[in-house]
């Protein structure tokens, strides 16, 4: 499969003199599930906003299908960490999912089909007429995922989406992401601070250094594509990979910025 | 269950009884009893006066309120969204809000004459400020993540206004409208007291000048009822528009 996303010498400085991202380069293939981990405060969210075209980088380029990203693109959809503030409480679940489709040139039937399909895919068909605040945190994040799915992006960008939900809900949501990736072949960039989550979900894990951020390690995850919470996490290879990522992050925290 | 029905009715009823008792033993003609006022109420307002005085007053009030909401929300949204416009107009808005609206009546009379338009303009010029200023605050306080979501999904300008900015500001807008309503009612009466030949305010001033005391009190009673009705209609609309807002508050409390 071809190259989807290319990040080259990305640099972001917040005025007056906070260098959030130092020099970041990586590429991503279409259909990949790429997890990005790093110590807290390492500019993960900054990276994500640069990818999504919400922030303008100070230097370097982000390219999507070979064309530079200069603003939010219809080929990308974002799932934010703060689901409670990202969904619109005055709209129903269906209204929230449908909103980004309004300006796409779609027939009414086609639009309704996309919305119904996305709501069904995240398992919320039975509450489509409810308002987000009537649902639990995990269900609200499912609404945000459905909204992104219905948008039909080439790449789904997720910013620590499950950081604010409880462990059981989190496991369910992780499996939902794996499942959507497997059945729909969507490319996903998944930003997280959780090492276990990165290894369990990803096909590749990008470990970032502390700020100013660089790529510290780029590890392929050679676990079988069929994963489940119990058996995958019990595999010796899972433990090995987790240890590797963990050590890289520990070193990043101590500031040993060795070129990979 | 008993308290729910008894309490709201109980105190007004008690006051009426005290009033009735106090007035039967009094000879002061400026304080007629409730029965006399009720008689006067029926004679004065049910009949041609309803068409000549009450309806014109209420229609001017309604037009004034609708215009104040339209102007206040439109201007408030624009000022709230455009930074330089806000910085430019803020001191001026503070000044206009500080001017007591009734002093505009003489000026409006000079400019527009003693017309219906003048009265509506006076109502709007007073009621618009709380609506406008609350709208500015509400629009400015739009949540940053909600705005970023709108940007990420490339919502159009119109969609942002219709589905993000206005609903997000609606609790503040409704607070402004609630304040604007009471100002509008006050100005409706005052605009008719100055120079007028019909209307509720005119009637009350007329009765007072001619020592028709019971009739005057009945007019005040009618104004109070109009105020209560206005609040009730507002409550209905508010509950509908802000259903989500009250729902969230309830969820957070429970």
TrEMBL record, chain A:
Name of the protein described by the UniProt record: ABC transporter
Superkingdom classification of source: Bacteria
Keywords associated with the record: ATP-binding, Nucleotide-binding, Transport
Membrane-crossing segments per the record: none
Domain annotation ABC transporter: ranges: 5-235
PROSITE patterns (UniProt xref): ABC_TRANSPORTER_1, ABC_TRANSPORTER_2
CDD domains according to UniProt: ABC_NrtD_SsuB_transporters
Pfam families: ABC_tran
Record lineage: Bacteria, Bacillati, Actinomycetota, Actinomycetes, Micromonosporales
UniProtKB/TrEMBL annotation, chain B:
Coiled-coil blocks: none
Gene3D superfamilies assigned: MetI-like
Record keywords, A-Z: Cell membrane, Membrane, Transmembrane, Transmembrane helix, Transport
InterPro entries: MetI-like (IPR000515), MetI-like_sf (IPR035906)
Record's bilayer topology term: Multi-pass membrane protein
ABC transmembrane type-1 domain mapped to chain residues: 54-238
Pfam families (alphabetical): BPD_transp_1 (PF00528)
CDD domains the UniProt entry points to: TM_PBP2 (cd06261)
PROSITE patterns documented for this protein: ABC_TM1
Transmembrane segments: 61-82, 181-204, 216-237
Cellular compartments annotated: Cell membrane
Family membership: Belongs to the binding-protein-dependent transport system permease family.
Protein name, per record: Nitrate ABC transporter permease
Organism: Asanoa siamensis
